[in-house]
């Protein structure tokens, strides 16, 4: 590109945009910005795709101020942001807790006649749920449906997760049944979130029922699902079932981690079987399993309570 400019050749927009895309894919964001600025001085404006492509990595890296600056610069050059531009910004603002800014951006989409999609709404609903603002999340959910948008499994799961964190399992299951009635199939994350909510509420009979329902629906549990179940059973002192689940996940080729072992160690200690907990840890270390400080602290605490 520098050689072309040095010879007074003016590249076409398509070529410029392709170069920006290549640089972004290679992670050379600084070079991509430099190219955009250099072309801007020559009166060559990369297309909207190029700006979106630059904005996305900035947002993923948490450089929100730079992303907003790029957004403003793009508008000054006469480019009109589309639904992708807004979705990128709304998602980033929502993930970083800047819900007020995300809501303003969603409003601007409507003001400027940019057709809404499910993505910015889902991002905002997820952000509201993570911040514990469930009433706003429900309001946005109703708003998107009124606009004719169809919630995805991610939208429903975000609401379910929000209610589970609030220990409101009644509302969590209301959303779960709603998504099923509307033909949206729950995925592994949906089931894991619900099972986790039941485990934290010590409702293990229902957690096990849901675990079995998940299997019947051919949704395969992952490491996180098993970790949640193991933790739930160990919380109520049923380490036998906890170790059965450990064996089961290993048989299925899943790899246990510290998050798997910690509740088992804690469960043994809390039921007065500290020596068994010590033997379990020794066995894990002999097999070169990595344990964090919490595992050892739990064991020490168990000895102190004996």
From TrEMBL:
<feature type="repeat" description="PPR">
    <location>
        <begin position="47"/>
        <end position="81"/>
    </location>
</feature>
<dbReference type="InterPro" id="IPR051222">
    <property type="entry name" value="PPR/CCM1_RNA-binding"/>
</dbReference>
<feature type="repeat" description="PPR">
    <location>
        <begin position="187"/>
        <end position="221"/>
    </location>
</feature>
<dbReference type="Pfam" id="PF12854">
    <property type="entry name" value="PPR_1"/>
</dbReference>
<dbReference type="InterPro" id="IPR011990">
    <property type="entry name" value="TPR-like_helical_dom_sf"/>
</dbReference>
<dbReference type="InterPro" id="IPR002885">
    <property type="entry name" value="PPR_rpt"/>
</dbReference>
<dbReference type="Pfam" id="PF13041">
    <property type="entry name" value="PPR_2"/>
</dbReference>
<feature type="repeat" description="PPR">
    <location>
        <begin position="152"/>
        <end position="186"/>
    </location>
</feature>
<feature type="repeat" description="PPR">
    <location>
        <begin position="82"/>
        <end position="116"/>
    </location>
</feature>
<feature type="repeat" description="PPR">
    <location>
        <begin position="222"/>
        <end position="256"/>
    </location>
</feature>
<keyword id="KW-0677">Repeat</keyword>
<protein>
    <recommendedName>
        <fullName>Pentatricopeptide repeat-containing protein</fullName>
    </recommendedName>
</protein>
<feature type="repeat" description="PPR">
    <location>
        <begin position="117"/>
        <end position="151"/>
    </location>
</feature>
<dbReference type="Pfam" id="PF01535">
    <property type="entry name" value="PPR"/>
</dbReference>
């Amino acid at each position: 590109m520098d050689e072309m400019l040095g010879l007074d050749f003016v590249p076409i927009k398509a070529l410029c945009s392709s170069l920006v895309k290549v640089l972004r894919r290679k992670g050379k964001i600084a070079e991509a910005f430099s190219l955009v600025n250099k072309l801007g001085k020559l009166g060559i404006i990369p297309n909207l795709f190029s700006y979106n492509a630059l904005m996305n990595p900035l947002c993923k890296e948490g450089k929100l101020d730079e992303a907003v600056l790029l957004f403003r610069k793009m508008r000054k050059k006469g480019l009109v942001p589309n639904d992708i531009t807004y979705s990128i910004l709304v998602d980033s603002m929502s993930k970083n807790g800047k819900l007020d800014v995300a809501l303003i951006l969603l409003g601007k989409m409507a003001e400027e006649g940019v057709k809404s999609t499910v993505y910015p709404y889902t991002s905002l609903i997820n952000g509201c749920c993570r911040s514990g603002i469930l009433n706003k999340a429900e309001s946005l959910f109703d708003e998107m449906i009124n606009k004719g948008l169809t919630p995805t499994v991610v939208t429903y799961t975000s609401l379910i997760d929000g209610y589970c964190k609030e220990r409101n399992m009644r509302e969590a299951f209301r959303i779960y049944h709603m998504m099923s009635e509307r033909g949206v199939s729950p995925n592994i994350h949906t089931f894991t979130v619900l099972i986790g909510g039941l485990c934290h509420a010590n409702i293990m009979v229902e957690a096990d029922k849901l675990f079995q329902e998940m299997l019947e629906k051919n949704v395969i549990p992952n490491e996180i699902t098993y970790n949640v179940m193991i933790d739930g059973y160990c919380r109520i002192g049923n380490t036998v079932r906890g170790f059965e689940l450990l064996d089961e996940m290993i048989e299925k080729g899943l790899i246990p981690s510290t998050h798997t072992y910690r509740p088992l160690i804690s469960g043994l200690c809390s039921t007065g079987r500290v020596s068994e907990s010590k033997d379990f840890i020794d066995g894990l270390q002999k097999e070169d399993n990595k344990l964090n400080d919490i595992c050892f602290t739990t064991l020490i605490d168990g000895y102190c309570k004996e």
